[in-house]
Structure formats: C-alpha cells, structure tokens
C-alpha cells in the first residue's frame, strides 16, 4: 500500500513538472529546481576612446533587506559603468542595512536612512537628488545583470527617439540560485492595460519621459506603482521598446511584497488600475484569454533564446 501511494505521488509530481514546463516562465515565480547561476564573461568597453556614455541614475529603495542589499549594490557597482549615479534611500532599517550601506558608501552619490511613507516615497526622494539622463530603480533584493547598463546606454544612444526600454528577467531564490526565466516576445501597449508582464528591475527610461509624466511615482500605490508608472508612460504615446536580452535578476523570498501582498493590497491596486484603464473589472479568465497570444509567443521565444545572452 505504501509503495502504491509513493508511486502515485511520484506520478503526480511528474505531471506537475510537465505542466509547469509547458507554461511560459513569464508570470511565474520560478519554474524549475534551483541551479547555479552562471554568466559568460564580457570584455569591458567602457574605456573605449571617444565614447561618452550618458549618466545613468539608479535609485535603490531599501527597508530591512540587509541580507540582500549588498548583492544588489555589488551587481550595480561591478558593471564598471563610469557615468553612474547610485543613490540608496533606506526607510530607517533596524537590521544590518546601515553596515552594508557604509561598506559601499564611497560608491554612492547620496544616501539616507530615515523613516518615510513607503517605497514610492523613497523612490521619489531618491530621484529628487538625481541628475542622470537615463533613470531606473532597483529594489534592494533584486540585481542588475552583468553588462546591462552599457547595453541600455548604447541602445538609447543609437535610438534617440526611444524613451523607455526593458528586457528579460532571470528569477533567483534566496540563495541566488536560478529558478526561472521571463523571456518576453515583444512590447504590447494594448496588453499592458490588462496585465503587467514587464520586469520592473529591467526598466530604464529617459529623464524627458520622467518629466512628461510629472516626475513622480504615484505614492498612493504601495504594490503596483511600477505598473501605474508604465501605464502613465505608455498613455503618453512615447516609444517603449523591449530588448531581447537579460537585464535583471528578480529574487523570490518570503518577505517580498510580490509573494506576501499579492492577494491583499496587490489585488486591490491591480483591480483599481484595470477599472481606470479598461472601465471594467475583468475576470481572471478574461485576462488570461486576452494574454494567450502573448503567452504562446513567449513560450516560442523560450525555445530560441533560452541560453544566457
């Protein structure tokens, strides 16, 4: 009897793994067992003669993420991007965050640790101190992929009409092991009104775009502020492009908002945005049906772009 039960569980597990493998990685917080994260070496081009790269301002909002903040800052600093403005805005952490900040203080353009009104307020506070032509924020538990800043800067330089770009994401666990990938097929402004598949930690935009939408993250949002910001950009009909390269690492752990607040605060804010953009509160089935062509295209892209690039 015990053997039969074990065989049944084993069969169920195989079917579960099979079904997960048939789904695209986007929208999922991991699709396979942890494996070592490796990255091919790239030759630095930052010192190329005559190349003047635009200043990139990155704000890192932080609160009690001392276990991960060092990895986040190191991933940005190790880009060896000369024209970088790195800002850390901490909400008055009580863990090891301050020690981590002071360890990297010489690389920071500005930092502060004080109580604030939340993540959106911290991001706004940081950008008020910034001056870069290209802007981004990276949460204190996520990371920037090697070579990302240069790839982004070169795209903006080669495409002056572009106002915002984003790329693909690799999902990692608490220990930094890879557990999934989001390989996106293309940018869809229409689908963005229904669902947000854009990896926030891979998003970069121009200062002119920032000014165009009021130069602020909407502090009324505590969960979906990135989706709201993207929609405000998109509704200005600016050029937003998806780059088919991995630009960021998204960390999954028990204390992150994506895991802990999706069914509460997250659901309310997502519903409010859909009502604002669509005029209705669509069912999950309707959202899924609207997403099907994009999801099929994403799965197709996974077969052809699954190697690290």
UniProtKB/TrEMBL annotation:
Family matches, as Gene3D superfamilies: Spore Coat Polysaccharide Biosynthesis Protein SpsA, Chain A
Domain Glycosyltransferase 2-like: 57-181
Lipoprotein is among the record's keywords: no
Alphabetically ordered keywords of this record: Transferase
Any one GO MF annotation of this record: transferase activity
PANTHER family: GLYCOSYLTRANSFERASE (PTHR43685), GLYCOSYLTRANSFERASE TAGX-RELATED (PTHR43685:SF11)
Protein name: Glycosyltransferase involved in cell wall biosynthesis
């Amino acid at each position: 009897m015990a053997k039969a039960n074990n065989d049944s569980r084993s069969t169920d597990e195989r079917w579960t793994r099979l079904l997960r493998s048939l789904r695209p990685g986007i929208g999922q917080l991991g699709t396979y067992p942890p494996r070592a994260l490796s990255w091919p070496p790239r030759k630095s081009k930052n010192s190329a003669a005559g190349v003047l790269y635009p200043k990139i301002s990155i704000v890192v909002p932080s609160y009690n993420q001392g276990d991960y903040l060092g990895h986040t800052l190191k991933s940005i600093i190790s880009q060896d991007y000369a024209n970088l403005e790195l800002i850390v805005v901490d909400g008055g952490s009580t863990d090891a965050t301050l020690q981590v900040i002071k360890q990297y203080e010489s690389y920071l353009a500005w930092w502060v640790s004080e109580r604030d009104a939340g993540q959106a307020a911290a991001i706004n506070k940081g950008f008020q101190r910034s001056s870069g032509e290209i802007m981004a924020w990276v949460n204190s538990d996520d990371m920037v992929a090697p070579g990302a800043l240069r790839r982004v800067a070169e795209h903006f330089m080669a495409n002056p009409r572009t106002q915002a770009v984003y790329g693909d994401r690799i999902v990692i666990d608490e220990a930094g092991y890879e557990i999934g990938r989001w390989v996106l097929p293309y940018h869809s402004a229409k689908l963005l009104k229904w669902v947000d598949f854009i990896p926030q930690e891979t998003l970069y935009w121009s200062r002119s775009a920032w000014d165009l939408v009021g130069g602020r993250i909407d502090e009324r949002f505590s969960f979906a502020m990135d989706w709201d910001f993207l929609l405000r950009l998109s509704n200005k009909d600016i050029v937003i492009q998806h780059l088919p390269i991995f630009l960021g690492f998204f960390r999954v752990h028990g204390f992150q908002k994506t895991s802990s607040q999706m069914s509460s605060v997250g659901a309310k804010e997502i519903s409010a945005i859909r009502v604002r953009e669509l005029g209705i509160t669509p069912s999950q089935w309707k959202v899924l049906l609207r997403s099907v062509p994009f999801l099929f295209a994403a799965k197709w892209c996974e077969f052809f772009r699954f190697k690290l690039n």
